Fold this sequence. Notes:
Helices cover 43% and strands 14% of the residues. Helix 4 packs antiparallel against helix 9 (183-192). A hairpin with a 2-residue loop joins strand 2 (27-30) and strand 3. The model has no long low-confidence stretch (mean pLDDT 88). By secondary structure, it is of the alpha+beta class. It has one domain (9-241). The protein has ten helices and ten strands. It is globular, with a radius of gyration of 17 Å. The longest helix is centred in the last third of the chain and has 20 residues, at 222-241. This is Aminoglycoside phosphotransferase.
Amino acid sequence: MTTIDTKAITVELPQAFDERWSRLPGIQVDGRRITIDPAEYFFRFESNTWLVADWELVKSQLLDVQETTESAVEQLALDFIKAHGESTSDAARVLSTAYEVYAYLFRDDHLDGLGLPQITADHLRMLREAATLMALNKVELDGHISNVGPCWFFPAATSVVFDLDDEMGGMLDEVYHGGWFNEHRRIESIKAHAALGGRLVHGCQSVPDQSGGVVAPYGASMANFRDDLAAFKAGWIEQVYAHRVSPAA
């Protein structure tokens, strides 16, 4: 494996994150400032480049574009990425872009349409924070998973940070998965994730499997992705849960 630079990642985001993220190794939160030590934070960190597009361009040129019988929404997103995607080694830029993407996808006016009265605006904030950090994970075109951090495993990471019991952690994961089950949200998700250079893919079918999600490039081998994920997930999920402060309810 090629050795890459693992200098600290520091970003200042528009809103303060919950300080309990510091329960996970390698991450420190000081209000709006987040510092990540890749060597401690990631289970696997083999790539320090990501594909991103300017969020303002996504908002102005993609979010309101409608698919047609000739051009599906996935094709619209792919064409946009080809035209505007940029490779970057600036992890702070990735996190800042991801924050905008998930502030949009998990905005409070979605609450009434979720059909989940247990989910509050505070839960959506948890999703925004976890998904922002998830954006540093990476899948290569050949399906190999090159970067894996704790937020790959959504229910595990959120249970550690936010003291959620298993039921609520699973419920939160259902909202994260919601783009699969609600076409309006799926279309929003495909367009918004163009800012992160791909589409959101899940390694699982639902909560019990907990195989997480990642923004993968269009064309990535999902067969290799599935096999790579299956080989490592159990041990790493266990390591995330080991940082729980209080036992699961």
